Amino acid sequence: MEVGKPLSNRPDEGRIEINVECYPTATYASTDKGANEIAENLKITLQSAYRSDALDLRRLCIQSGRQCWIVYIDLLLLEGGGNFLDAASLAIKAALIDATHLIDPMNSKQLMPKDTEVTTPFFSEKLLPVFVTVHKVGNSHIVDASKEEEACSLSRLSVVVYPDGCTGDMLQEGCGSCQLETIMDMFELAKKVGMELNSALTKTLRLERELRS
Length: 213
Description:
With about 210 residues, the chain is an alpha+beta fold. It has helices at about 30-50, 85-95, 145-150, 180-210, and strands spanning about 1-5, 15-20, 60-65, 65-75, 100-105, 120, 130-135, 140-145, 155-160, 165-175.
């Protein structure tokens, strides 16, 4: 994280910048060019979800139009067994939940000693989403697909899912076409799994913090 200048069209907000690097060994790509294309597509897709108004990036503003926090997230993919997008979104959410800043005792509404250092999260875990990708393989729908399962998939639907079950961006890819009923079934499955993933990740991080304290 570092202090920077807000965007001119969003003077009261900070921002999240995501960078993805992908080794050829982590993908089907046999060249750096192919790996770079995969990394760029991942970056664009992830960035779109974390620039959403639902995140309340105003919490990153220090001084309107002058200073803000810029959160840099670097993802390095060394080896993969498939399902890059969903796994990357889980890692990003975990990192953002742990991102905290100090509370100034002089400006706090709570009574505390001046020498006390108290931190508070930048983001509420309730506002941070994950991606869930559902693959259509034959007549079945698969989540958390392996490389082999991805190779058999003719169509996939990626959905941004928030902890409360609300959804954001959707991305459909693949060479096969889907009927509306099939897409709705895939969407409902993604929504259900997304809520479970959000809940499981939050519980895991809370347990980890308890063990560290």
